[in-house]
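Lab notebook: predicted structure, single chain.

Context: the supervisor wants predicted structures on file for every construct in the current expression panel, including those that have not yet been purified. This is the next one on the list. No modifications to the sequence; it matches the entry in the shared construct table.
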Amino acid sequence: MKRTTIFAAGALTLAFGCSRKGTGGAARVPVTIARAEQRAVPYEIQATGSVEPRQTASVQAQVTGILTRVAFDEGDEVASGQLLFQIDPRPFLAALEQARAMLARDQAQAQSATLDAERYAALVKQDYVTQSDYEAKRANAEALQAVVRADSAAASAAQLNLEWAAIRAPIAGHTGRLLLREGNLVRANAPEPLVVINQIHPILVRFAVPEQHLAAIQRYRKNRLPVLVSPSQTDTVASEGVLTFVDNSVDTASGTVLLKAEFPNRDNALWPGEFLNVRLQLYVDERALVVPAQAVMTGQQGTYVFVLNQDGTARSQAVEIARNAGTYAVVSQGVRPGDQVVTDGQLRLTSGALVEVKGAGDMAGDK
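Prediction complete. Output recorded below exactly as produced.
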C-alpha cells in the first residue's frame, strides 16, 4: 500500500513538471526583419522590347562585272564612304574613253557647222546664198550641237559607271556576312545584297506599353525620359538611354502604343534582334514609403505583412501596395516609417507568435 502511494505521487509530480514545461514557454520562430522607410523611388513602366539598328543599308552593285577585291572582313566596323568592294574597272574605263572620244569628235563637227551657219547668215543678207541654204546650215549646226549634248550625257554615264565599280559604304556601321568573294560575277541590282550594314552606335530599342500609360508619358515626356534595359529582370547591369519616339496612334488590336528609345551603345552591349526587359522612368517619388517586396504576403483578405511588436511578437498587418519598384514594394497604407517587417520566416508565423530575430534585411542598414 505504501509503495503504491509513493509511485502515484511521483507520477503526479512528473506530470505537473511536464505540464509546466509545455505551457511555460512556446518556441520562438526565427525570422529576418527590415524596416519600412522612405526613400526616392522612380515610377517605372515595365515592358519587353527588341533591339533594332538605327539605320540599315543593303549594299548592292549598280554595275555588272567581276569582283576583284573585298576591302573589309566580315563583321568589321566601317565608316561612311569607306571602300568595300572593287569591280574590275577596265571595261568601264574603256567605255569612258570611247565616250570622251566621240564627244570630242562631235564637238569639232558642231563647232565647224556653227561657223558655217554664221557665215551663211552674213551671206544671205547680201543675197549671195539663198535663204534655204542658210536654214539648212543652221539646222545642221543645231543637230550637231544636240549630238554633242547626247555625247556629253553618255560620257557622264560612263564616268558614273566607272565610279560605281568602286562600291563604298553608304553609312557607318557594323557589317554582316559576305555573300560574294573575289572572282565572282557581280550583277547590277541583284536580289541578294553584297553585304548588310547595321548602324549600332547609337542603337534603338522598340517596345510597346498599354494605352492607359499614354497620358502620363505625354505629360512627362518633355523631361527626356530615361529608359533602362537589361537582358533579364534579375540582371543588375542595365544600359541607359532616352525615349525618342512615341507613335502617333494606338494599335487597336493590342491596345498598346509603340515607343522607341535611343542608346549610345558604346560598349556593344545591345545587339540587333535581341529581346530585353525595358523600364521607362516617368518621375521619381522622393519620399515613397517602401518595404522589401518579399515581406508582402497575399491572403484571402488581401495583401499583408507581419510587423514586429515591442514585446517580441509578430502581428499580421493589412497593407495597400501602390506599386512594385524592383526589389521594393511601395506602400500607400498599413505601415509607418520605422516599422519592422518580417522578410523571411513568415510562412511559420501566426498573429501573436513569438519571434527570434536572426538577422536584418538589406533595407535595415541601406540608406
